[in-house]
Amino acid sequence: MSSLQTISPDFHTGRYTGLITSEQLQIVRDQGTDEDTIEQEYGVSFTAGVKGAIFGPCMAKASSAGRICEIPLDDHIWTETLWDLGNADMSAVWFIQRVGSKVLFIDYYQDNYKDWPFYVNVLQNKGYRYRTHHLPHDGRNTYIMMPHLRPDNILKACVKESGIGGTVKTHERPQDKKKLIEACKRRFTNYWFDSGRCHEGIRLVERFHKRYDPVRKVFTKEPVHDESSHCCDALMLECLTRPDTMYDYSSENTIPGIGHRDRRSKSVLARFERKIN
Fold first, then answer.
1. Same domain, 36 and 102
2. Phi-psi category of residue 268: left, alpha or beta, with phi > 0 → left and psi -120 to 50 → alpha
């Protein structure tokens, strides 16, 4: 006699109601269907739909633990930005705040074919109080004819002239991306995401995955380069930025005397000679 496995509804993780016998489930496994596909077809969380999802289990745990939620903005805490740079590809920007050991991902933005004044204008319109803008290693890339036009130098000039505040720090290239991914997974229990302002970023983090080789029946070591890559490269930059001592709410991470958003007048570099919309 077949034993029945009941799948009860759990709308928080995306699980739906179903009824299947354990024998039927085993037949599906014996036919070579991987567990991610079984979970996707027979009622599991939304993250199981992406085969080889790198941060899928981490995001599922964050969701079940209530770390994907509405995060109230606090103007007393400094905001940092995490960047991945692109042109035809997407440029991605995460906005984070630190409270104790928590890293609050409060906002996300991405775009392509835009120049630096445009992105600085975006940061300005967000209205956050910026402490540090973190760039990846290619922030030091130079042009042969114009070596002074490094991305980090341009951003420093834009930040200074626009008055949005914050220092620009360019980080070294990680020697081993696999180790960086594993480090980020370990850090994930400290991560909180605003469900509204970070909606697109959350979707992309869930889609970040390795390519599956159907012949060898294994996943490749390197992540697939697609729309999710830039978002997750910016996210993983957090592992390279964390301070030696976690900031306390009442320590240097708190902005003294700030009780409201400070929306300063818009300004861009004169050398671009055009208005940024």
1. no
2. beta
Q: What is the CATH number of the domain that holds 162?
A: 3.30.420.280
Reduce the DSSP state of residue 91 to 3 states and report it: strand
Integer Cα distance of 173 and 158 in angstroms:
24
Do 96 and 130 share a structural domain?
Answer: yes
Are 30 and 82 in a shared domain?
Answer: no
What average pLDDT score do residues 111-134 get? Answer: 92
Q: How many domains does the chain have?
A: 2
Residue with the bigger pLDDT between 15 and 223: it is 223
Backbone angles phi, psi at 123, to 5 degrees: -60, -40
- Indicate whether 260 and 224 sit together in one domain: yes
Residue 62 lies in a domain: no
Q: Answer yes or no: do 12 and 74 share one domain.
A: no
Tell me how far apart the alpha carbons of residues 186 and 131 are, in angstroms, rounded to a whole number. Answer: 25
Measured CA to CA, the distance from residue 200 to residue 111 in angstroms comes to 12
Question: Is the pLDDT score of 137 beyond 60?
Answer: yes
Residue 61 lies in a domain: no
What end-to-end distance do the CA atoms of the chain give, in Å? 69
8 A C-beta contact, residue 94 and residue 79: no
User: pLDDT digits over 51-108, tens only?
Assistant: 678 898 899 999 999 999 999 999 899 999 999 997 667 899 999 999 999 999 999 9
Cα 264 to Cα 101, 108, 202, 247, 261: the distances in Å are 31, 21, 30, 26, 9
How many Cα neighbours within 13 Å face the side chain of 74?
A: 17
Domain extent for 232: 68-272
